[in-house]
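A brief tutorial aside. Many learners find it easier to grasp structure tokens once they have seen a single protein encoded end to end. The record that follows does exactly this for Peptidase. Read the sequence first, then the structure, and try to relate runs of similar tokens to stretches of the chain.
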Amino acid sequence: MKAKWSIVVMLLLIFIPLQVSAKQLIPMGHSIGVQLEMPYVYVSHDVLLESGEWLKQGERITEINGKTIANLEQLLDNEQAQITVENAQNSRKLEVSKQQLQRLRPFVKNATDGVGTLTYIDPSTLEYGALGHQIIDSVLKQPPTFNNGAIFEASISQVKKSVPGQPGYKVSVVDKATTPLGTVISNELYGIFGRWEQPLQESLHQPLEIMHKGQLKQGTAHLLTAIDGEKIEAFDIEIDEISDTTFTFQVSDERLIRETGGIIQGMSGSPIIQNNQFVGAITHMFVEEPTKGAGILVIEMLKKSPN
């Protein structure tokens, strides 16, 4: 009998689950500017050269006088030169003068940038997540390859309201001469991720436990975002449809509807809180119904983070 009881006790000890602390993140809501530096120079607008040749939007300038170039300074700081231009179909060489090179400045880029919202900071690792969706370069029509990336603080100077059929947007002031808030390590399906490199900013919330699949409920929640300057505010929403990893919601906050029309561009990444748990982030709006938005669970964003 003693031996039997010993076996039972051992099995119970083996199968009792360990108690571990739940993952906590700081929900943010700050507006940020994002810049990704690409390892090549590309044409952002069609431009006619003195020779009568056209440089077409999306083409890459890969060489100057036979030397590979990776940034604007290498291209523009030259006398008369021969440049190599590539597109999906072919490669060609063109002669350009120093004056023409300088005139190209407004029409060539080696970086893509935009604005969005900071979603969270992990206080234990100082990693952050933002935007809730991938950055697609508007000229290249694809996620850009990049060597370096940074996020900067942004201030909302004006809001263009959304109306059915016409999305509104935040007008943001981004000073890239200031020290970056952090680096961008990856540009993934559910947002950008990187390392936070400044003292932690104040937030409306202390670190919150993240919400897991099956915990989100229909009903009241709130989003955190900035619509005036750098001030983060909480606005009421109603969660309606819930799937495995995504959800939709209606903006119920009368002030937000009055001032923005609902969801506007630049709100992507705004954190969503329900019952003092970190739900996820805004990813999209419904163009014909701007008071309706869609979001992704933050636990899904974490799966795409660098670590």
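Self-check: The two ends are 50 Å apart (CA to CA). If you spotted this yourself, you are ready for the next section.
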